């Protein structure tokens, strides 16, 4: 478990909790050997999840591709927009007003 703690930069209790959730969901199997527990991914349930996600992946991929085409077709706005959506004054404009 120490390797996972180091690699994931999580605490030991957090890693233990995640492994327990994965085990209870049937996504990993565990084999105890003395003081160690060896975890192994179970590809079957993960393939089922991948199959279930496939139509959503296609939907999002098509939607994001359409958004990208739309944004690429929009003219570039030379003015910088602030968080409220209104154009911000540039340094030169501020100096001219004073």
How would you describe the overall organization of this protein?
The protein is an alpha+beta fold and 98 residues long. The chain is built from four helices and two strands. A two-stranded antiparallel sheet has the order 1-2. A hairpin with a 2-residue loop joins strand 1 and strand 2. It is elongated, with a radius of gyration of 26 Å. 0% of the residues are buried. The model has no long low-confidence stretch (mean pLDDT 83).
Percentage of β-strand residues = 5-15%
Q: Determine the mean pLDDT.
A: 83
For the record, give the distance between the C-alpha atoms at the N and C termini, rounded to a whole number. Answer: 64 Å
Which structural class should the secondary elements be placed in? alpha+beta
Output the radius of gyration.
26 Å
GO molecular function, one term: DNA binding
InterPro entries: ArsR-like_HTH (IPR011991), HTH_ArsR_DNA-bd_dom (IPR001845), HTH_MetalResp_TranReg (IPR051081), WH-like_DNA-bd_sf (IPR036388), WH_DNA-bd_sf (IPR036390)
Organism: Prauserella rugosa
Biased composition (Acidic residues): 89-98
Short summary:
The chain is α+β, with helices and mostly antiparallel strands. The chain contains four helices and two strands, in the order H-H-E-E-H-H. It folds into two domains: 2-41, no CATH class; 43-72.
Keywords:
DNA binding; two-stranded antiparallel sheet; alpha+beta; Regulatory ArsR family protein; 98 residues; transcription; 4 helices; ArsR-like_HTH; DNA-binding transcription factor activity
């Amino acid at each position: 478990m120490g390797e996972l703690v180091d690699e994931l930069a999580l605490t030991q209790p957090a890693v233990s909790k995640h492994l327990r959730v994965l085990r209870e969901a049937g996504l990993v199997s565990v084999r105890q050997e003395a003081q160690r527990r060896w975890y192994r991914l179970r590809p079957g349930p993960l393939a089922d999840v991948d199959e279930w996600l496939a139509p959503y992946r296609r939907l999002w991929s098509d939607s994001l591709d359409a958004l990208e085409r739309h944004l690429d077709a929009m003219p570039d706005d030379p003015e910088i927009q602030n968080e409220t959506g209104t154009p911000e004054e540039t340094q030169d404009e501020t100096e001219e007003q004073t």
